[in-house]
Amino acid sequence: MLASHAKGVPPAPTDRRMRPVPCETETETIAFAPSSLAQPRAARWLALGVPLAVFGVFGWLRLISGAPLSLLEPGFQLSSLFKDLALLLLFILPHSVFSRGVGRRLLNRPFGPCGERPLFVFVSGITLVLMTQLWETTGPVLWDLNDWPHFVARCMQAVGLLLTTWAALVVGSALLIGLPHLKELRRGGGVPSAELIALAPYSHIRQPINLGILLMIAGMTEVTVDRLMLGLLTALWIFLAAPYEERDATLEFGEGYEIYLGNTPRWIPKKAPQEE
């Protein structure tokens, strides 16, 4: 879950709306520049991160839609595989480092708290575009699904895409790509308030966006060595990062999120107990 840090009031245990808990120490540590400082030029440059991120997402969807096998079956090229690995790490490592702790404090240095999310989107967009546009397909072909297995795999990818889109809209797609932060950075306002509302699909699972990505990866129909590496390393990254994301959310939202963790499974929805 991607959200900005802001002061707020901890929710009642039964409230689905969770806001950040006050943390003066964290605010003093993270905020290096005053959030009231108007920086319109920085906002214009950082706004380029939005189309970069969108373009990169479409490039990623093209990669996982399947390897291009219509013209010629690709042969194995070790250099291409190492290049793809380097491109994947170029995206994963900065994305992970700048998501928390020291990385977030570094993102605050150039433009202050309002610039943190737009700068994160900008860096992520550039690295994702580089990865998807410079990616090279290398064989051999490991599997190429046809007939009903192909149909089932495509349905799995469609479900994953719908789940990811649904979850992003519930969280707030504009907040995810930093549009409110860009607005405040341009005019010199405060950091946009963050909140998490445990509505569906978040009321059923804690990681719907990541689960949707995993479903799209699992539904790849034409898989070569490079696509297998892409899928396995991305899945491993998601499984390793999920606990850290939830730990950060617990620090941000406090008791309300701890109750949410206890009541909501991470990956597989649980059957609601039947009332007698």
Characterise the protein shown here.
It is built from twelve helices and four strands, in the order βααααααβαααβαβαα. The strands form two sheets. A two-stranded antiparallel sheet has the order 1-3. Strands 2-4 form a two-stranded antiparallel sheet. It has one domain (21-263). The longest helix is centred in the C-terminal third of the chain and has 29 residues, at 225-253. It is mostly helical. It is 61% helix and 4% strand.
What is the chains' assembly state? single chain
Nearest-integer average pLDDT: 85
Give the number of DSSP strands: 4
Helical stretch tally: 12
Structural class estimated from helices and strands: mainly alpha
Q: Rounded to an integer, what's the Rg over CA atoms?
A: 20 Å
Q: How are helices and strands ordered from N to C?
A: EHHHHHHEHHHEHEHH
Count of distinct structural domains? 1
Q: Strands of the biggest beta sheet: in what spatial order? A: 1-3
